[in-house]
Design brief:
With 314 residues, the chain is an all-alpha fold. It is built from 15 helices and no strands.
């Protein structure tokens, strides 16, 4: 129940993060040809959060035995996250409407029922925008979430090794996401995103080859490169998703796309991955599932129009 519920959370959080940089596009605070780069800075949040969370867990693990950590130690980072929730609420109180929306509201041209308008008039764009995210979410679940389980429960290696690999991967992801966002401004959203999706399909199999070596450096390499491939898609994603919708429904449309993809992709992915491995006893089934999710993203890319070099639709 908690994982699908977690999938509901990114929609509101993502739309708040996305519109801070995108809201200034077309005025003195931003440039039309830098939307990918500007929006990609918001995408650093998940990696930074992963880095902070795994780092905190690793720190707690150093001072506790595995038995104590499982018995009560895990509650320390869990309870401490309340401080981040309070900080997030404080930030959101200061987020203003975008200039484009304010101008539209001044002319009383905003959508009266934006959710209905998205489902009725922009359902195709909603499917495309949601499909763009599913593949990257499932790949992230494999490389980040499943790594801890696989390293400790299947390979019977230490938790600090899994956490170290995840922290290294998250740090690299945070550094390169803006680079791929900027690259999409030059080459286009679709070519960059397509490269990431195709590399992800290959990595779904290579990942386990490296993991099954049980060599620490290969395990770290599997996670680090996996999150680099994720960054290829995640860098352009913020701009690409929001650019699919006109200003009238951009807030509602992108939020719905993230929420639906969060449920179908990130929300269920850890449970599906674990269930497939338990049912078939092989990583092949897991790799095929990741490929299927990336296949959905490839279909969305084929249906999506290139938006990098076009003005935002009003």
């Amino acid at each position: 129940m908690l994982r699908p519920s977690h999938g509901l959370c990114p929609g509101d959080g993502q739309r708040t993060r996305l519109f801070v940089p995108l809201g200034n596009i077309g005025n003195v605070h931003g440039r039309q040809d830098e939307r990918g780069r500007n929006a990609s800075f918001t995408q650093v949040g998940p990696s930074a959060g992963t880095l902070l969370g795994t780092g905190f867990i690793a720190l707690v693990s150093l001072f506790l035995s595995p038995e104590d950590f499982l018995a009560w130690g895990w509650r320390i980072p869990f309870v401490s996250s309340v401080a981040l929730v309070v900080f997030g609420l404080w930030l959101r109180r200061g987020v203003d409407e975008t200039p484009a929306f304010k101008e539209m509201a001044a002319h009383n041209a905003q959508a009266k029922t934006p959710l209905k308008e998205v489902f009725v008039s922009h359902w195709r764009r909603l499917l495309v925008a949601g499909g763009l995210r599913i593949g990257s979410d499932v790949l992230y679940a494999l490389v980040v979430v499943f790594t801890l389980t696989y390293v400790t429960s299947v390979l019977h290696l230490s938790r600090p090794l899994a956490l170290t690999a995840t922290m290294l991967g998250a740090a690299g992801n945070a550094l390169t996401v803006p680079l791929f966002g900027a690259l999409s401004d030059k080459l286009g959203r679709r070519p960059v995103y397509l490269t990431g999706a195709l590399l992800g399909i290959v990595w779904a199999f290579v990942f386990f080859v490296l993991m099954d070596s049980s060599q620490p450096w290969q395990i770290c390499l599997a996670v680090v490169l996996g999150l680099q491939i994720h960054a290829v898609m995640y860098g352009p994603q913020a701009a690409f998703v929001t650019e699919q919708f006109p200003t009238r429904v951009r807030y509602a449309g992108s939020s719905l796309a993230y929420t639906l993809a969060g449920i179908l992709g990130g929300g269920f992915a850890p449970l599906i991955i674990t269930s497939l491995y338990r049912a078939y006893g092989t990583t092949g089934a897991v790799s095929l599932y990741v490929c299927a999710a990336l296949g959905v993203t490839l279909l969305a890319l084929l249906a999506a129009s290139e938006t990098a070099h076009k003005p935002l639709e009003h």
